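Lab notebook, bench 4. The sequencing result for the construct came back, and we need a structural model before the next group meeting so we can plan mutations. Quick request posted to the team channel:

Model the 3D structure of this chain.
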Amino acid sequence: MLLNALNLVIVLSLPFCILAANPLVSEGKGEDVVCDTIAKIKQSGIFADDANIMRRIAYAESLFGTHPNTYRSGYNGGIWQVDKIGFEDAKDIQSHPNLGKLWSKIEILLNKQRNNIKWEDLRKPLFSGVFARIRLYLVPSAIPSDINGQAAYWKKYYNSAAGAGTVAGFVNKVNDMNNKFGSTC
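Done. Here's the predicted structure in token form:
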């Protein structure tokens, strides 16, 4: 009897577990969601290797989406905290002609046409992750492989001078992430 009850609980819980780690569920959060999102982006073959910076940014920006301000009212940047300006820039193939070649593949990955994607879609982790990765793609400098180099890169090109983050804060958060979750997905 106990075994049947346990099996029932497992079966009934399964859809919730699947939804919780689904990068297409709005306001998804957690390491599993981030790792699944990054895996989908890597499997698409659209972008070069990111040297683990996408995972580090997800933690530094929003603690994998678990920070209470991640999905605040009026802000739709998602786990990677992609601002509206960065979102619009990532869609601008006139200013970034090389993006035009990528967008046909990105549209397949997201299952949505570029012109139909709204900033609100970035509340879904896959959209937030893809737009964060586009922002990194647009940076003319290569992504450093070490944490300190990535911290400086993140501050200069992603968080910006106006952003509240610091290089030291990024390094501290990455070290915290590595202690809690390990250094890779």
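The first helix runs from residue 2 to 20.
Will bring this to the meeting.
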